[in-house]
Specification:
Keywords: Signal. By secondary structure, the chain is of the alpha+beta class. Helices cover 27% and strands 22% of the residues. It has a single domain, classed as C8orf32 fold (Roll). The longest helix is centred in the middle third of the chain and has 18 residues.
């Protein structure tokens, strides 16, 4: 995604729930799940991607497979494998340098893409490996550098875990150091929800 100025817009969009000082503060307790506050607007570029990739905005599986429900260990193992595979295969390049436009969400078919392109590819591959679409959501976060970033969230029974193109580690959301601004709704994948949880959040 675009760097700091987009993050500033996201922060300004929720002044009642984000700390006005912008200072980092540790949350006393972190819930295991990224629960929504209210509906939010989708990120720029998501709408056209939703039209282009049916699996991105549907809870139907991209590939039908007769698999037994996966437990958390199996979900996390599949997520780790895909995260490592995609991170090794795709080189991060911003949209301006890659496709000549400011913001375009598309699969990184030429081996390059930015954070949302890489997150979408991971979602697609995990669906193809039998992970239910309802357990996978894109999320917009703010890093400690005040840059916006997109990651993929995997919902397990124990809590929400993050697949990130900046690390091969699959971490619970609260261990990423990110402030989560908004996330794709698990039940209606065309809708996004305001989250506002993390070091800079103040509900």
């Amino acid at each position: 995604m675009k760097p700091a100025h987009l993050a500033a817009l996201l922060l300004a969009a929720a002044p009642t729930v984000l700390g006005s000082s912008g200072s980092v503060r540790a949350m006393e307790t972190s819930p295991p799940f990224l629960n929504a506050i209210r509906p939010a607007s989708a990120p720029v570029g998501f709408g056209p991607a939703c039209a282009a990739y049916r699996w991105l905005c549907s809870n139907a599986q991209a590939v039908v497979r007769s698999l037994a429900p996966l437990n958390d260990a199996q979900l996390l193992a599949a997520a780790k494998a895909v995260n490592v595979e995609v991170n090794a295969a795709i080189r991060q390049v911003n949209d301006i340098d890659n496709v000549g436009v400011g913001e375009q969400w598309s699969l990184p078919e030429n081996g390059t893409g930015d954070c949302e392109d890489i997150a979408m590819l991971k979602m697609k591959l995990l669906q193809e490996r039998g992970i239910p679409a309802r357990l996978l959501s894109l999320a917009v976060v703010v890093k400690d550098t005040n840059e916006s970033h997109v990651v993929l969230v995997l919902r397990t029974q124990a809590g929400d875990h993050v697949l990130d193109n900046l690390t091969n580690r699959i971490a619970p959301w609260a261990d990423t150091g990110y402030t989560f601004i908004k996330m794709q709704n698990a039940a209606n994948k065309r809708q996004w929800d305001l989250i506002v949880l993390g070091p800079r959040a103040q509900r």
